[in-house]
Write a structure and sequence with these properties.
The chain has about 600 residues and is mainly beta. It contains 8 helices and 42 strands. Strand 33 (about 380-390) and strand 34 form a beta hairpin. The longest helix has 22 residues, at about 585-605.
């Protein structure tokens, strides 16, 4: 929308006095070839990204004059003219400078009447609304003589080995007899646990004599007269009872190793990542994951689509280790360990003293010497242990307490561990700092109650941080400087190619509960906690609530070990008080300065 048309719309909808009070529109920071930065200010009021005039009163929830909900606590929210006073059942409700209001509603079961009054001088707007709190019905038992559903222990098809446990559940008519597979009995569970009668469960240990080959599992229900109803599982089951190991090779770089089958919106918890063409022993399949045996006592899961099964008979992953060399190229130190094939590995960092610990699964020591060459800049010492018959553990002790990055990769069948040296001078003027503006393009992120998009706020604050760092003499690299879509995987590949010293990713938080607020920082690796801790301490100077320093965070841009990183969730876009501050570009300047202060403290602590 051009400026002239926009101002005509504003004048058509608002009087002159209101125009003087309220800033109407901000088009954020479209920079680069072919883009123009536009900032339209009516007064010096904090910037609000509002494309349309605010109505006198617009209730976003309840959504209608009569609304039915299934929760006991909901939130009365919407937008109102800031020159007025808002009351809910006689109690004043705060209207923020953005026009947003939010107030919790603690409902009683049944009908809850809301009397809403919006007062501007002598003019009062009255509105009556009703919210009906209708508790969800408890689970109901299956009626008649029927099987309602059957479930196996995983949602998808299963590959199991002899010795694995097949666990099943069935919901059917209560008080019956039931079986599954080879007439194995199912037992009805106490309703105190399930809250409904007719839940049957059972389990069976897979035997070497079982010959299931992608077959459905049959379930049967019997009444007293032995009348029977049967059904089959949707999933199929295969028993891996071939006389040799089933093996596969990873087909890409950075294949994730998962601890288990749990997941959330960021994916399941990960042990680490594997290089391409790593050989894995596959012992099962659940959902879209292969279960793999790393050692006698350690298993993991990898995505099916990132592993190619090897045809025919292959030996399990195994190798003797060769002798080592430890050398430097003046920027990085390298530990090189010879193997006969690419074995799976995991890496972690111990602290006080700082050590990188790499476990190589299926490796057995035949290392008779370790050559450590002169001129090492990051590594103090290396050694190993054979901690079990099939786990070879590498220790790399660093010279400095603060780890600045490491990488584990294969070169042929030689495992190479690259350890990054500490920058020569811990001065922002000597560092390369990567700044990531979260989301972008079609990925808008969270949306505030005013309609502001997270992607735009992230970009604004990231550009402010870039400017603040450049004033300090820092070399800054940006994952995006305009409103464009950039896949996080592509961001990570690009960042690794740029070799930054540090990464700061800027986001805004959001919650379904609009009262949750505050600033927070996030890290994945314990070795990089110090960076996020110092930034959070400085962000708290902005008088934002403390939402915490969150560790082990499973965000893709926190995952690389090659450089320290911190995710900064500046404030909650879903909270009206936090959103009010986020809409102020002056606040963006303050955020940038506090992050720079946190970086300076981190560098001072690392000296």
């Amino acid at each position: 929308m051009n400026l002239r048309r926009h101002m005509m719309l504003v004048r058509g909808g608002w009087n002159a006095q209101r125009i003087k009070r309220v800033m109407v529109y901000l088009s954020l920071f479209r920079l680069g070839t072919g883009f123009v930065a536009v900032l339209v200010l009516i007064t010096a009021w904090p910037v609000a990204l509002i494309a349309q005039p605010v109505p006198r009163l617009k209730v976003a929830f309840p959504t209608s004059d009569s609304t039915i909900v299934a929760e006991g606590t909901v939130y009365f929210k919407g937008r109102a003219d800031t020159t007025g006073t808002l009351f809910l059942n006689g109690d004043a409700v705060k209207i923020y400078s953005t026009g947003i209001f939010v107030s919790p509603l603690h409902l009683v079961e049944g009908i809850n009447e809301l009397q809403i009054d919006h007062v501007i001088e002598s003019d009062t707007l009255h509105k009556r609304m009703v919210v009906v709190y209708k508790k969800p019905l408890p689970p109901q038992p299956t009626t008649g003589f029927a099987i309602e559903y059957v479930r196996l222990s995983a949602a998808g098809d299963l590959w199991l080995q002899p010795g694995d446990l097949l666990q099943v559940e069935m919901k059917a008519s209560p008080g019956m007899s039931a079986t599954f597979y080879k007439d194995i009995p199912l037992f009805e569970v106490d309703t105190a646990e399930t809250q409904v009668a007719g839940i049957y469960r059972g389990e069976y240990i897979i035997q070497s004599s079982d010959s299931l080959l992608d077959q459905h599992i049959q379930f049967s229900l019997f009444d007293e007269s032995r009348k029977t109803v049967s059904t089959n599982s949707r999933q199929r089951v295969r028993v891996l009872n071939q006389p040799y190991a089933l093996t596969g090779l990873t087909t890409a770089n950075d294949v994730p190793l998962f601890y288990g089958l749990g997941a959330d919106r960021l994916g399941g918890a990960k042990m680490g990542y594997l290089d391409s063409l790593v050989k894995l022993e596959i012992t099962g399949k659940m959902n879209d994951m292969y279960r793999v045996r790393l050692s006698e006592h350690v298993q993991a899961y990898v995505p099916v689509n990132l592993v190619r099964l090897q045809q025919g008979a292959h030996f399990r992953p195994y190798s003797l280790t060769g002798s080592w060399t430890v050398s430097s190229d003046s920027t990085n130190d390298f530990v090189r360990i010879g193997l006969s094939e690419r074995l799976p590995y995991t890496a972690a960092v111990q602290q006080e003293p700082t050590r990188i610990v790499v476990d190589i699964y299926g490796a057995v020591s035949n290392s008779n010497w370790i050559t450590q060459k002169d001129g090492l800049i990051a590594i103090e010492n290396v050694w190993y242990e054979q901690v079990s018959k099939d786990v070879f553990r590498v220790y790399i002790e660093t010279k400095k307490p603060q780890l600045w990055g490491y990488e584990v990769r294969y070169s042929g069948t030689q495992l190479v561990i690259r350890v990054k040296s500490q920058p020569t001078t811990l001065d922002l003027r000597r560092l390369r700092v990567a700044v990531d503006a979260g989301h972008g393009g079609s990925n808008v992120g969270a949306v505030g109650m005013t309609g502001v998009l997270e992607k735009d706020l992230n970009l604004s604050m990231a550009l402010k941080l870039k400017s603040a760092l450049e004033r300090a003499g820092t070399t800054v690299i940006m994952t995006r400087e305009a409103d464009k879509s950039v896949n996080n995987g592509d961001r990570l590949k690009w960042l690794n190619a740029q070799h930054p010293d540090l990464l700061i990713s800027i986001h805004c938080n959001a919650s379904v509960n609009p009262l949750v607020q505050g600033t927070s920082t996030y890290y994945r690796h314990q070795a990089y906690r110090s960076l996020s801790k110092h930034i959070l301490a400085k962000m708290r100077k902005l008088e934002l609530a403390d939402f915490g320093n969150v560790g082990g965070f499973n965000f893709m841009l926190n995952s690389p070990t090659e450089f320290p990183s911190a995710l900064v969730e500046v404030a909650f876009l879903s909270n009206p008080a936090d959103e009010e501050r986020l809409l102020n570009t002056g606040f963006h300047d303050e955020v940038a300065e506090r992050i720079v202060d946190g970086l300076l403290e981190f560098l001072e602590a690392a000296r």
